[in-house]
Amino acid sequence: MSASAAHDHALAPNDLEAFWMPFTANRAFKKKPRMVTGAKDMHYLTADGRKVLDGAAGLWCCNAGHNRDPIVSAIQAQAGELDYAPAFQFGQPKAFALAARIAALAPGDLDHVFFANSGSEAVDSALKIALAYWNITGKGSKTRLIGRERGYHGVGFGGISVGGIVPNRKFFGSLLTGVDHLPHTYNREKQAFSRGEPEWGAHLADELERIIALHDASTIAAVIVEPMAGSTGVLPPPKGYLQRLREICDKHNILLIFDEVITGFGRLGFAFAAERYGVVPDMITFAKGVTSGTVPMGGVLVRKGIYDAFMQGPEHVIELFHGYTYSAHPLACAAGLATLDVYRDEGLFERARALEGAWADAMLGLKDLPGVLDIRTLGIVGAIDLAPAKDAPGKRAFEAMDRAFHEFDLMIRVTGDTIAVSPPLILTESDIGAIADRLGKVIRAVA
Ligand SMILES: Cc1ncc(COP(=O)(O)O)c(C=O)c1O
Questions:
Q1: 257 to each of 296, 341, 390, how far by Cα in Å?
Q2: What is the pLDDT of residues 173-210, one digit of tens each?
Q3: Single GO molecular-function term (predicted)?
Q4: Domain 71-345 classified CATH 3.40.640.10?
Q5: How far is the CA of 115 from the centre of ligand 1 (A)?
């Protein structure tokens, strides 16, 4: 395209062509866009003046709701005070303050924070820290990484290698070598319509023993799982499963990483799912809710022993050859500090815990609607499996998402034929009622 054509192109008001949208059916969107132009608290706003109830907290991230004044002001003030500072060899105070605040929310001795800019980068950082840790502690043969089927750990090569969502992997070559996967924990026959953590399935953690027997613990660096698998369609962990994984990793000297990009910052009623389950992993990856989605940020919480192991050798030498230009970006740090204040001052984690029962009742109340195969709930998360349309997997849920937005003023997420809902944690009982009511209408409309 010539420069002048590009200029004209950029000015064309309704041309949606240039933006290749991520994880989107581009052609369908561009024919009939689901466009938002503003947001406040529980709602997105559209150009034609509609208020769309946010049943998804954006992408599981706006836990404090939208355009909250204290967070907006903090970002605005920061932009005027210190726009950017390198985090390599230099610092700015809010990075240290935020790391300390996040560490204080984490259980056990998860005392150190490495900052990245997304969940994907957080995951790659955690996997690299695990490999480097064994390398520097004289156990360099421990290089294998164990993920889980149906796991989602972002889209970096590390994340898709340990992840277990087939379309996210199959187009992208041979991925990292030396990766194995635990089985996923879902069994509809045994678990359908269970509330919270299903009774059945803790024994699936013992599959880790089988994998260790196959490869030997001396070759395994780390196991990474989401405490609740989110993106695959919401799979709450079976009762006792995560505790069992911790025991097996301890027994064999393998690091355990919880990917809490979704479950962190109140989604399950606690700062981290690790606290809900009484399990201290060796690392926790986080993103999304740390800034309530306002400015990109991710990171890894690391146990003291791991951090300390790196703090050796001559003091002028870099201890970990890893980091991002935008690690601990000042705008993200300011947003993070203000977000954590909102969570604390409004008691949003406790609020999520208090509303969990009413939320589960509302979700499970949709059980008898036509075409509903299963409903799962945990914290302020719900998932509804719809019967797939004949010969067109994913089409029914896609239609549900589209019609929810255009006809019922509700934003939801879908994966395959599963609807996932995860509203901001500022929701009220009346919002729960409205979400359930609109979901019911959507499900009937696409049945
Ligand atoms: C558990 C988990 N890990 C990692 C990611 C990737 O995060 P991002 O999209 O910020 O790279 C996600 C995103 O949904 C996630 O749910």
A1: 22, 27, 39
A2: 999 999 999 999 999 999 999 999 999 999 999 999 99
A3: pyridoxal phosphate binding
A4: yes
A5: 15
Closest CA to ligand 1's atom 8:
119
Between CA 235 and CA 150 the distance in angstroms is 9
Distance of CA 120 from the midpoint of ligand 1 (Å) = 6
What tokens appear for 120 in the block? 């994907």
Q: Probe ligand 1: pick from 261, 263, 301, 414, max atoms within 8 Å of CB?
A: 261
Q: pTM for the full model? A: 0.97
Q: Which atom of ligand 1 is nearest to the CA of 298?
A: 10
Is the model's pLDDT at 304 over the cut of 70? Answer: yes
Q: Where are the domains of the chain?
A: 34-64+347-446, 71-345
CA of 84 to the centre of ligand 1 (A): 25
* Cα(176) to centroid(ligand 1), Å: 18
Residue of the CA atom closest to atom 3 of ligand 1: 153
- CB of residue 420 inside a 6 A radius of ligand 1: no
Task: Answer yes or no: is pLDDT of 44 > 70.
Answer: yes
The answer, yes or no, to whether residue 11 has pLDDT greater than 80, is no
* CATH code for the part of the protein at 34-64+347-446: 3.90.1150.10
Q: Is 351 in the pocket of ligand 1 (CB under 6 A)?
A: no
The mean pLDDT of the chain is 96
Nearest residue to 439 (alpha-carbon basis) of 423, 425, 424: 423
In three-state secondary structure terms, 238 is coil
**E strands within 79-157?**
110-116, 144-148
* H or E stretch covering 375: strand 372-378
* pLDDT above 70 as % of the chain: 97
119 Cβ inside 6 Å of ligand 1: yes
Note the pLDDT of residue 9. Answer: 53
Rounded Cα–Cα distance for residues 244 and 1 (Å):
58
For residue 67, CA distances in Å to 73, 99, 189, 348, 430 come to: 10, 23, 42, 16, 21
Q: Is the CB of 163 under 6 A from ligand 1?
A: no
Closest atom of ligand 1 to CA, residue 120: 11
Q: pLDDT at residue 4 above 80?
A: no
CA distances from 187 to 194, 237, 258, 329, 377 (A): 11, 12, 22, 42, 15
For residue 59, pLDDT beyond 90: yes
Alpha-carbon span 6 to 261, nearest angstrom: 38
Whether ligand 1 lies within 6 angstroms of the CB of 63 is answered as: no
pLDDT of 25:
96
User: Under a CB-based contact definition with an 8 Å cutoff, are residues 443 and 417 in contact?
Assistant: no
